[in-house]
Amino acid sequence: MIWVDYGTQGRLDTNDSLRLASLWHSMHAISKELSPVNGCNGIEVLEADTFDLHCFQALTGTKIFVATEPGTPGIDSLLKTIYEIYTDYVLKNPFYEVEMPIRCELWDLNLALAVRKDGKAGLVGR
Q: How far is the CA of 103 from the CAs of 89, 91, 117, 124, in angstroms?
């Protein structure tokens, strides 16, 4: 699971990100089972008073999360761009171990560029 903080508040540390991802994974799986609509893909956005939590699940099962300020537009395209950057700079990195925190300079650089290019000031994290 990949975590990107797109808001202007503080960043989550690695442990908090893992806890949030674990909780989300459970809620996502339960929502697919409880949905009265056939073909439900789970929760895509969780809207709260102070933030929105967006999720993109790739066909590989990888989930990308972006936390935004409420009502931030255009996050769907940003999620897909982040996944493309992930496949280009993380999965093709011979030193990356799957399910481990991402420690890759090209990932960090291109992720920051994608957020800036999107036209919004944000805090980027993993």
A: 11, 12, 22, 14
